[in-house]
Amino acid sequence: MADFDSRDDFLPARCPGPGWEDILAADDIAPPDFVAQDQYRYLGSEPIDAKRYYDPEFFALEKERMWPRVWQFAAREEDLPEPGDYVTYENAGRSYLIVRQADGEVKAFHNVCLHRGRKLATDNGNADQFLCPFHGFSWNPDGSLRNIPCRWDFGHLSDEKMQLPEASVGRWQGYIFVRESDEGPSLEEFLSPLPEYFKRWKHEECVTVAWVGKVVKANWKITMEAFMESYHAYVTHPQLMPFTGDANAAYHVLSDHVNVNYTPFGVVSPHIEDKKLSEQWIIEEFGKYNGRSADNYDGEDDAGAVEVPEGRTARQALGEAMRATSQKMFGGDYSQISECELLDALVYNVFPNFAPWGGFMPNIVYRWRPWPDQDHCLMEVRVIARVPEGEPRPKGVPMHMLGEDEDWSDAPELGVLGGVVDQDMSNMELTHEGLKVSKNQRVELGDYQEVRIRHLHQTLDKYLAD
C-alpha cells in the first residue's frame, strides 16, 4: 500500500483546556508509551462523496476489489474449541466453513458443495463430515472428499479435484481471520502495530461472555463510523457527559490498516460548563451509566460506592477500586496497571470492519458486515473477559441475534451498554436515508475528531484503485 498523503507541519485545532496527554499525566500510574504518544496525521480536508454509502456500483467494487484481499475477523478460538467444531462465516458474497482440525489447527473452506453448488452448512456446530443435504456428497473436516453417492456416474472426478477450496487463515490473540486471496501482507503485517501493543492485554486469555447481533438498515460504513469518534457523544449520549472527556479524546493513525480513538473516562466533558461539580459526583454518574464498567462491580466494590479521598481525583479513586476488583475477579497482580488501561475507551479499528478495545477490563469487540447489500449491515457487539486464574477455559457463548422489532437494550447480557447502542442506532437509518436525498452529495469531516473516518476511506480507495 502507498504511504499516507499527510502534512506533518499541519496541526488542527484541539479542544481548549486539558488534552488527552494532560489527563494521563495527572494519573497515579502512567500507561504504556504508545498510548500517550501523539500519532495523529493530517489526511486532508476534502469532503467524502455520499454515493460511497449507497451506490450499488460502489458496493460492487468493494466486493470485487477490497473484501477478497483483506484479513477478516471470522471467529474467536473459543467459538470452536474441539476437533470437528465449525463456524460458518459469511460476508460480501462469500461463505466459509471455519473448522478445528484434529491437531488443533484451524482451516477455512469455501462453504459450497462442488457438485451442484448448495451451501454445505448454515449453522455452527461439530461434525465428523460435511454432508450436502441435496444429493449426499460429503467431505471430511480436513476438506478431503469422503463420498460421492453413485460414484460410478462420476468417473471423471478425482479425489484431488474434489478437495474443498481453502481460504487463508491467520490467528492472533484468540481471534481467527480469513482472507480469500493467497497474496498480500501476513496477518501480523496487516495488524501492525497491534501485535506489539496487545501483548500487554493478552486477549488470548479471554473468552466471549456476551455476543449480540442485529441487522441495521444502513450501509456498513455508516454504522461503523458512528463508533469511530466521540464527537457525537454530547448530543447522542448526554447521560455519559458527567464522566466522559469526549472532546478531550485523542485520534491516532497508526498504519495503513489501523487507527485508534482514546477517550478518557472519570473526567467531566468539556461541554459541561459547571466547573464546580465534585469528583464524587463524577463517580456516582460513572457507576450508573458507563457501559463498559458499570456492570463489572459487585458488593463493596460497586463503582457508585467508591469514595474519593480529599485531594484525589475521580480517576485516581476509580483506578484504585478497579485494580482491587480486577485482581479479585481474575487473579494476577494489577497493582501497577494504569488508570487509562482500566477505565478508558481504547477503541482500535482494523480495516475494514474490526474494532477490538484495548485495556484490561472486559473488552468490547465490534464487527460490521454488509447484510447482504449496501443498504443493510449486520452489527455485532461481543464482550470478552479474562478467564480467572486456575479455572478451565469455557466455550464462548453463541450470538444472540436480535429480531427487527427488538432493541439492543432487550439483550440483558449487555447491561447498560445496550441502551447506549440504541441511542447510536437512532441515527443510522436516518443517516443512510439522508445521504440518498442529499442535495450537495457531500459528507464534511472534521480534521481531527473525524480523521479516522477519512483514514478508512483513503485506505479503501487504495484497494479500489489497484
TrEMBL record:
PROSITE patterns: RIESKE (PS51296), RING_HYDROXYL_ALPHA (PS00570). Pfam families: Rieske, Ring_hydroxyl_A. Keywords: 2Fe-2S, Iron, Iron-sulfur, Metal-binding, NAD, Oxidoreductase. Residues 71-178 form the Rieske domain. Its cofactor is Fe cation. One of its GO terms (molecular function) is oxidoreductase activity. This is (2Fe-2S)-binding protein. It comes from Novosphingobium malaysiense.
